[in-house]
Design brief:
Blueprint: E1 2-6, E2 8-9, H1 11-28, E3 33-37, H2 49-57, E4 62-64, H3 75-81, E5 100-104, E6 110-117, H4 128-139, E7 145-151, H5 155-164, E8 171-175, E9 185-187, E10 191-194, E11 199-202, H6 211-220, E12 233-243, E13 248-259
Parallel strand pairs: 1-3, 2-11, 3-4, 6-7, 7-8, 8-10
Antiparallel strand pairs: 1-12, 5-6, 9-10, 11-12, 12-13
The structure holds fe (ii) ion (FE2).
Fe (ii) ion binds near residues 39, 66 and 67.
């Protein structure tokens, strides 16, 4: 089966481009499933309930998120009621929502998606390794295809988690840095891996934000008000083929499309 994983969707430009592109991409790339990280979808930080619903309606099967998920409170009930919208699993157990789902596609193929967050250069959170182990146990025989979105900053933490779970996961795709890495490959054990999928957002930017205030912040050291950049959008992600009968990855490539 063919899966497109889209990296962090940034603000209105990112949302609009993804909304417009997804159904065409499903045809063009012969996709069975689209997973996207939506944690920056609303104003560049967080994801509102309305925006989450419209991204799902556009043709995304499962939305993952990250450290900014608690910004818009209206998404909390949505996280509780909609199993297609995830938040990192290693937040405290009392947090709204869930960190993984077993999603059954129209074809009948069950795909488990796990959303987990890193701890290096990130706010405090429970151990991603222990949480992932627990979830894989819970998933058991429910799904052979298992995709992990590891929302993390440090390349070392991402590689370590992917290698640790390479025998069990079909793919580990990193998100959060917004910069696509050039290391898509299949780890021993048959696990597709990409350190970071990159972002779906304005190309002429610093990580999706207008560059001027960011530059000023670096030069002056003083806080600045950031806003989502405008202009042409770039869609970044990972395109994978997984053997659904074994759950092992067949291929993975870093994927990018420029929308003008
Ligand atoms: Fe993030």
């Amino acid at each position: 089966m063919r899966i497109l994983f889209l990296g962090d969707i940034v603000g209105r430009p990112g949302r609009k481009a993804v909304d417009a592109a997804v159904s065409e991409l499903r045809r063009e790339l012969d996709l069975d499933m689209v997973i996207a990280n939506g944690e920056n979808a609303s104003r560049g930080l967080g994801m509102s309930a309305k925006n989450a619903r419209s991204l799902l309606a556009a043709g995304i099967d499962v939305l993952t998120t990250g450290n900014h998920i608690w910004k818009f409170k209206d998404v909390y009930p949505e996280l509780n009621s909609n199993p297609r919208i995830l938040r990192p699993a290693n937040f405290t157990a009392s947090s709204p929502g869930r960190g993984y789902t077993v999603h059954t596609l129209e074809s009948g193929i069950a795909v488990a998606v796990i959303n987990i967050q890193g701890r290096v250069f990130m706010p405090p959170i429970d151990c991603p390794f222990a949480e992932c182990e627990k979830i894989l146990e819970e998933i058991g025989e429910q799904a052979k295809v298992i995709i992990i979105d590891f929302h993390a900053e440090a390349t070392s933490e991402k590689q370590a988690l992917a290698r640790h779970f390479a025998q069990k996961a079909s793919a580990v795709i990193g998100t959060h840095t917004h910069v696509q890495t050039n290391d898509a490959w299949i780890l021993e054990g048959g696990c597709a891996y990409l350190t970071d999928a990159g972002m779906c957002g304005p190309a002429r930017s610093c990580l999706g934000m207008a560059p001027e205030p960011i530059i000023k912040r670096f030069i002056t050291g003083l806080p600045q008000k950031w806003h989502v950049a405008d202009g042409p959008v770039q869609l970044n992600g990972a395109l994978m083929e997984i053997d659904e009968s074994t759950g092992r990855a067949v291929s993975i490539s870093a994927w990018r499309k420029d929308e003008f």
